Amino acid sequence: MSETKKPKLRSAEWFGTQDKNGFMYRSWMKNQGIPDHEFQGKPIIGICNTWSELTPCNAHFRQLAEHVKKGILEAGGFPVEFPVFSNGESNLRPTAMLTRNLASMDVEESIRGNPMDAVVLLVGCDKTTPALLMGAASVDLPTIVVSGGPMLNGKLNGKNIGSGTAVWQLHEQMKAGTITLHQFMSAESGMSRSAGTCNTMGTASTMACMAEALGTSLPHNAAIPAVDSRRYVLAHMSGIRIVEMVQEDLRLSKILTREAFENAIKVNAAIGGSTNAVIHLKAIAGRIGVPLELEDWTAIGKGTPTIVDLLPSGRYLMEEFYYAGGLPGAIRRLGEGNLLPHKHALTVNGKSLWQNCEEAPIYDDEVIRPLAKPLIEDGGICILRGNLAPRGAVLKPSAASPHLMKHRGKAVVFEDFDHYKSRILDPDLDVDADSILVMKNCGPKGYPGMAEVGNMGLPPKLLAQGITDMVRISDARMSGTAYGTVVLHVAPEAMAGGPLGIVQDGDFIALDCHNGSLNLDISDDEMASRLAARAGSQAPVAKSGYQKLYIDHVLQADEGCDFDFLLGSRGSAVPRHSH
Ligand code: FES
């Protein structure tokens, strides 16, 4: 590109003047040992880092950032690394989801308020990917995602075990008495044996795949293991590319189009991705002004085969996915079967998604299966509606039991998560394999933060009988590493006055995933009278602090759980401050 076509650098508003303001902006930066020439027209590239030792999945990010910097320097840019709130899934209470929006606000204001021309987002653990994309979308600078990559395969007794999924499986086996506590505990070290994110197709891997399918990262970003040297090559190349993106003025809004989201929904079905993607994609779309509805998941995703054979739906792990060809291989399969809706969608490397994937090699048909031999014929996310979920609910068919996809059963009701924990162990609990477990008050406002508790463990007495799955319904979310016939994200939630709040023990509920319905078998009059009796009786959990702000402003699951006041892009303009 010729000099005359170069866009004016945004950072010049800080560093480009030879006056009192320019002096002050530069002078304080110079205390880091930065020479004069660095301020003379180089694109300034932010590296937005979610490194934290309390977010173990992102704990290798200082090293990752160094490789991004090498690429930026090589391309003639000026890298500036900055920290943002890091919400790790494994440690943060009550749930990392409570702080996704908080982190996105930190990201948005950090990018907009500081002198940078573009930004590299270092993401990994579940909520860090959507939070950083949401914040960056609201500013809309040239942006590129670099994920931290998955952990190596977990190991137990010489066999592979998957992050999270192994915990649910082994815990149920221990409760059923088929393994000992010692065997359970010995899995602890072997499951997480390298840097990186969960190695199953949980939410972190799903969102890394979504970032790549949306076109916001370089090809193969999703699956290269965290400790593979090629992860650092990708970070380096992303550093080079982001400098070029400044010259091309390739902003996030040119990448995050409606077409990109439609591609991502299709890819989510093909990979057997997490239900959490429904909420996060809606929230990201909401920031960039792209309309996306629950029904899009049915219209676009339905009929798409799941071809990536990864836990928790299938057999393998992210390490094998990369060796088999990674996401470009899976996208190639979709495209060859005319299942990629928008091949021309632009990605951050300036090529279309299809140009990046059409010749991608596929090395293992067991991991990236041919379309004619899918893991699940009809993957994707099942969207449910009915009098129990007027604004929708979701279920992941690939993680569910086929015989329960159409089921009518008697409700066993838990008023909240504590009630569930105290009641589920009761040997006299009136429950059998046909019952439906219902949990209330675990939605965005109710928990608050909509924790991943929707995959309620089964009653021990049924586990002991060899029962491994039951229909479960709640307004909660579920870990992407979990499985079962679990209806999630019921909206409106119980705390917001939704019908879930009026379900009683012994009520019959009818679930039909084939026609997308979820109904409570009571008359309209009974429904109206129970709702009227309950109106106004729900007390919010927090009366002050951030949790109060969250409860007051969080939108329901069908709207992406963003804050009402954060929707939309506010751009990168910032009032000029005169010292
Ligand atoms: Fe961080 Fe799973 S706990 S990716």
Automatic annotation (TrEMBL):
**What enzyme category does the UniProt record give?**
lyase
The entry's keywords: Iron, Iron-sulfur, Lyase, Metal-binding
E.C. number: 4.2.1.9
Where does the source fall among the domains of life? Bacteria
Pfam families in alphabetical order: ILV_EDD_C, ILVD_EDD_N
Q: Which GO terms describe its molecular function?
A: dihydroxy-acid dehydratase activity; iron-sulfur cluster binding; metal ion binding
In what residue span(s) does the Dihydroxy-acid/6-phosphogluconate dehydratase N-terminal domain sit? 42-355
Question: Where is each Dihydroxy-acid/6-phosphogluconate dehydratase C-terminal domain found?
Answer: 366-561
As for family, the record states: Belongs to the IlvD/Edd family.
Put simply, this protein is called Dihydroxy-acid dehydratase
> Can you name the source organism?
Massilia violaceinigra
